[in-house]
Write a structure and sequence with these properties.
304 residues; two-stranded antiparallel sheet; mainly alpha; 2 strands; elongated; 64% helix
Amino acid sequence: MSISELDDRLITYVIFCGFFAVLSLLSWQLMQRQVVQRIGRVPAGMRQPLAGKLLLGTLVGLIALWLMIWPAWFSGAFTEAAPGYEVFDKLNRIGRVDFGTLLRFFSFQSLAEELVYRGFALCLMATGIFSAATRYMRPHNAGARWMHYNWLFSGLAANLLVSVSFAAWHGGNPAITGLGMLNIGLAGLVLGQLFLNQASVAGAAMLHLVWNLGLAVLGLPVSGILVSQPLLGSVRGAGQALISGGSFGPEGSLSCSAALLLVLAYLLWTALPPAAAAVEADPAAVDGTAATALPEGTVPDDTL
């Protein structure tokens, strides 16, 4: 992509950020009233300060990126000697974009997509499923543990639907493959689960930024789109498509699938409610009177 093409797309993303930031804020406020204030003991992820949420998103993004890329890197899949090697820029049309331009572009691109898919769509859908399940399915003697599981499974159901649409939206990208579509759906599940754990788009937007920016800086296609020649390293193409992702980029590889599944498993594990033994040791966790529960009418410090 040329810098002018990036700037043209950037304008669209800025407009999306402004419009969906308002819708996301309204959805977030509804979630605070319908979920956070009714869930009893507020999960640790939701109680994190904004800086903690951003840091977690950064760390998860870096780890996932490394897990995805290193098998291809160390197996030689990015070298010309790799079987099936093809250069990414066959027509020699992509130039080297400076880091500042890439950072500016992907900051708004990542935030825009997270506001649309997680901040608005997932937030609204998960809140609706949670509220309906609480009203029609909650046992009379249910406590905070039941509410935690209700939020977990309501979020999973909504996240699956939103992630399918997230993958479908990328379906027209260049060199898309079935495995690439699957991995984009898995990436949507990871981003969505991080949002659900934190009740905030902060961590998900940072993870998304680190992921896309990292690929672009290394000169690798981002979901099939080559944005820049490498700022770090000298990768110009790839072979062994199952390991490297081929022309679509690492997101079309089996190593990407494995990396995303590992991260998703970790996020789901951290989303589980306290063990029964912990609940028995802390009765306040059941009736919602623990010191970490939010008082009526209050919300966590960060707004998104």
